[in-house]
Structure formats: structure tokens, C-alpha cells
Amino acid sequence: MLRYTLMRLGILVGCLLVVWGLVYSGIAPRGLGSSNGMWVILLSLVISAPISFVVLRKERDRASIQIVEKVDRVKANLDANRSQEDEAVDEAARAHEGQAQAEGRTQADGQAQAEGQARPQAQTQGQPS
């Protein structure tokens, strides 16, 4: 990617020098008033764009392949991290569910024992002495 950018910048600078030379030699028209610098830059950009498009086609394709590979790696890493998080959340939910069931059993056993102790007392209280 850096190589493509530097090559594109090189083409722009080359066009800038050529246009500057043409304008100051009188071959290309000068801008209006003090806009000559802006005229040279804009004309250089307009000329360098199609040249870069044609000349740097292979380099642009290589750069785009590198970008696609990098994006794919990042997506794969995100998916791996997401699945790890999902597994951790599922494991925590199972642990919490198991703990809640164990507490529920303990409470149910405690209630059953309390009911079992309360019944004989109620039966003995209801009998005349």
C-alpha cells in the first residue's frame, strides 16, 4: 500500500514539474491574476489522475489484495473473539443455573423438613390431654 501511495505521489510531483515548466515557459496558459499556483496544482492533479489509473493498475491490484487479506484477518480475529466470549457467557450461565438449582433444592429440603416438624406439633396440640 505504501509503495502504491509513493508511486502515485511521484506521478503527481512529475506532472507538477512538467506543468510548472509549461506554464512558465508560456506554452500552457497562465492562471488569472495571482491564481497561477492554484492553476498549476489543479492542472497537475487532472493530468496525473488518468496517468496513475493506467500506469499503476497492477500496483493498485496488489494493494487491494493486501487490504482484502488484512480485512479478512481482522474479521477472523473478531469472529474468534466473539465465539470465545459466547462460550464464556454460556459457561457462566450454566454455572449460575446450576447454582440456582442447588439453592432451590436446599430451600425445598429445608421447607420439607420444617413442614415435617410442624405437622407432629399440630397433631399433638389438637389432642386433648
Rounded to the nearest angstrom, the radius of gyration is 40 Å
Query: What string, H for helix and E for strand, traces the elements in order?
Result: HHH
Percentage of residues assigned to helices = over 70%
* pLDDT averaged over residues: 80
Which features does this protein show?
129 residues, 3 helices, mainly alpha
Describe what this molecule looks like in 3D.
- With 129 residues, the chain is mostly helical.
- The radius of gyration is 40 Å and the shape is rod-shaped.
- Helix 1 (2-25) crosses helix 2 (36-55).
- Helix content is 88%, strand content 0%.
- The chain contains three helices and no strands.
- The chain has helices spanning 2-25, 36-55, 57-126.
Q: How would you sum up this structure in a few lines?
A:
The chain is mainly α and 129 residues long.
Set down the secondary structure blueprint:
Blueprint (H helix, E strand, L loop, with lengths): L1 H24 L10 H20 L1 H70 L3
